[in-house]
């Protein structure tokens, strides 16, 4: 299926059903009272996650979605049927924006996610509700309210633990095909990869992580050069970046300069992405002698002032891959542990605060036993 990571759709929630103007008419009852029922609520539109999807291409072919309207009320105080809600399935990692308001709506980031994007119109009420001691035969009723209408922009951001970063033809696709079951197109010319690819890397029997290969970056990518910002956004949800650098580029470019250029593009596009952990991975070492590869890598580290982790691999010869994937798995595990510890600490602080509030409340109530009022604001 064709990969599409952005689509614009129009969603129209259903109109609420009108209330009914009706009076009771039965044999031997000449002037029955009002018995008009309420209308039904209009259908709403929700977005839900479907883990089996990995593209937004379906929304390119069908950009308009309308929910059913609510039915009008009827006599004998019968309520009209409500319009059925519509549930649109989208891939995990979909972000939703309101085009007209230029506002963020929400994310579909888990299998339990359900995002209301267009609220159905409220039902109208029948004349039964307007009956009073001075108005025994009301002819008032209300119309149903229109449903919400929105123009939405859907953006798919791949959910991956590790993102591959580098210039075109740096060996990213070769790496992901060597360590996972993903089979991206691999060739000896730039921009072979035109769409992102995901692969699951298994380390041992019970450990794995997801790796994402995006099209190569060039200077000016943050402003749209090459494939530009179209795919840079996919790095926003990764936890670790592997910066691949070709030690023997066929075009004769300086690896240190291209590496610095990629770092500059990241900073221009997003400080958040630029601040993510980034490891240096020297590729295509099979094209060089071990001594030459070591010398070039040392020169690259010295020229860039690199202080982070450094790995040297050959995906074709499968050298250094186990060391790299093992280190990545360990790094992700350490991140998981740190995040769990931070979450546990936050929960503990919340529990201590809640207990302190409860203790203060009990103390206050014991001192104010003779009064019925106390302010909730004192405990916030």
Question: Secondary structure elements and their pairing?
Answer:
Layout: E1 6-12, E2 45-49, H1 57-61, E3 64-66, E4 86-90, E5 94-98, E6 103-108, E7 114-118, E8 149-156, E9 162-166, H2 172-179, E10 197-203, E11 207-213, H3 229-232, E12 240-246, H4 255-269, H5 271-274, E13 278-283, H6 290-304, E14 310-312, H7 321-367
Helix pairs in contact: 4-6
What is the multimeric organization of the chains shown?
single chain
Distance between the termini: 53 Å
Instruction: State the total count of DSSP E strands.
Output: 14
Query: From the alpha-carbon coordinates, what is the Rg to the nearest angstrom?
Result: 31 Å
As residue ranges, the low-confidence spans are: 184-194
Please state the average pLDDT score: 82
Beta-strand proportion: 15-25%
CATH class of the largest domain: Alpha Beta
**Number of helical segments?**
7
Structural class, from secondary structure content?
A: alpha/beta
Here the CATH topology of the largest domain equals Rossmann fold
Query: Would you identify the CATH H-level superfamily of the largest domain?
Result: P-loop containing nucleotide triphosphate hydrolases
Give the total of domains. 2
Helix content: 25-40%
Give me the strand/helix succession: EEHEEEEEEEHEEHEHHEHEH
Largest sheet: 6 strands, mixed
- Return the CATH architecture of the largest domain: 3-Layer(aba) Sandwich
Shape, per Cα inertia axes? elongated
Task: Write out the strand line-up for the largest beta sheet, numbering strands in chain order.
Answer: 10-11-9-12-13-14
């Amino acid at each position: 299926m064709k990969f599409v990571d952005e689509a614009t759709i129009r969603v129209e929630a259903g109109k609420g059903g009108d209330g009914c103007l009706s009076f009771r008419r039965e044999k031997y009852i000449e002037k029955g009272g009002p018995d008009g029922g309420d209308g039904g609520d209009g259908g709403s539109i929700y977005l839900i996650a479907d883990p089996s999807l990995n593209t937004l291409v379906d929304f390119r072919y069908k950009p308009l979605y309308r929910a059913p309207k609510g039915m009008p009320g009827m006599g004998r105080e019968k309520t009209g049927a409500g319009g059925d809600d519509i549930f649109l399935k989208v891939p995990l990692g979909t972000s939703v924006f309101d085009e007209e308001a230029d506002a963020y709506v929400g994310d579909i980031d888990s299998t339990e996610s359900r995002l209301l994007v267009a609220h159905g119109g409220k039902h109208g009420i029948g004349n039964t509700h307007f009956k009073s001691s001075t108005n025994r035969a009301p002819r008032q009723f209300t119309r149903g309210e229109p449903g919400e209408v929105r123009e939405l922009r859907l953006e798919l951001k791949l959910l991956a633990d590790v993102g591959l970063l580098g210039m075109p033809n740096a060996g990213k696709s070769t790496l992901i095909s060597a360590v996972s079951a993903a089979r991206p197109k691999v060739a000896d010319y730039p921009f072979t990869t035109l769409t992102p690819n995901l692969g699951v890397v298994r380390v041992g029997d019970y450990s794995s992580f997801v790796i994402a290969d995006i099209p190569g970056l060039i200077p000016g990518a943050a402003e749209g050069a090459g494939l530009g910002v179209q795919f840079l956004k996919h790095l926003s949800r990764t936890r670790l970046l592997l910066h691949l650098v070709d030690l023997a580029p066929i075009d004769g470019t300086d690896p240190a300069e291209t590496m610095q250029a990629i770092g500059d593009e990241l900073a221009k596009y997003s400080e958040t992405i630029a601040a993510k952990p980034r490891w240096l991975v020297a590729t295509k070492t099979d094209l060089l002698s071990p001594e030459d590869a070591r010398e070039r890598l040392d020169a690259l580290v010295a020229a860039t002032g690199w202080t982070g982790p450094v790995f040297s691999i050959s995906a074709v010869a499968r050298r250094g891959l186990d060391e790299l994937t093992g280190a990545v798995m360990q790094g992700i595990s350490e991140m998981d542990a740190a995040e769990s510890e931070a979450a546990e600490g936050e929960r503990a602080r919340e529990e201590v605060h809640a207990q302190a509030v409860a203790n203060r409340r009990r103390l206050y109530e014991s001192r104010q036993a003779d009064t019925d009022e106390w302010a909730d604001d004192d405990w916030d």
